[in-house]
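Inputs:
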Amino acid sequence: MKNEADETYTCGLDAALDIIGGKWKVLILWHLHSGPHRFGELKRLVEGISEKMLIQQLKEMESHGIVSRKDFKEVPPRVEYAVTDFGVSLTEALRPLCAWGEEHMQRIEQCSHKCEAEKQRAAG
Amino acid sequence: MKNEADETYTCGLDAALDIIGGKWKVLILWHLHSGPHRFGELKRLVEGISEKMLIQQLKEMESHGIVSRKDFKEVPPRVEYAVTDFGVSLTEALRPLCAWGEEHMQRIEQCSHKCEAEKQRAAG
DNA sequence: GCAAGTACCTACCTATAAGTAAGTAGAGTT
DNA sequence: AACTCTACTTACTTATAGGTAGGTACTTGC
């Protein structure tokens, strides 16, 4: 967000959300947390993600140093993705938030349903 | 994200990011964390936010129960926003991530600059 | 009348994220 | 030849988030 040339982030959360914000990154990170995975494994584990989005997200996470990519130079291609040490520090920092989300998941779901219902009502 | 009628979140982070994801919510929450604020105060504190976005984000945060809105029924209007108990539990859960972001802020900024530079190089 | 203060609402536009579909490469199998 | 496996790339489209500009309401002061 606040990454214009002359500006810095207002707070640490702002910066952190630049690294893990968006629909897919936390899901990918969640699966990689349990150990290294190949591309195809991740694709099957992360339900609903397209190859294109998976590649894009992995590339971004790699460029942020959260994830490492190991190419075994084989044919058919064999590539393995794993969380880096830096990425592990992030997953550790995410633990409390993860627990909070688990604890309040039903509440969040109910709210989301209510918000959807209100939107549809407003749409007529 | 995963709030379709028949689906639930894959992990707690997924759910939590539904509550605080996006450009503005963490910044608003960060300012409200220090105590209740009126609309105009928040508008001045959160640099770069438009009234429209501030209203929209506050409304969403209120509907999620993170923020409370107290209308003093005065003219000119006087409304005060504060973090709820539920919101406090969220801010507590966000502390480690906030600290992580603070700790790695410069690294994140440098990476963002590099990504921008690469994008511009690719654009020609 | 205008301007200031306060906190919103609405219509429309722009930017960004995500999605779909087609394609690439090499090796092996039918 | 086609198909399978693997992991990508590219062009274009759609969905969503954020932004701009105009407006509302009331009171007070000039």
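The first strand of chain B starts at residue 37 and ends at 38. Flag for discussion at group meeting.
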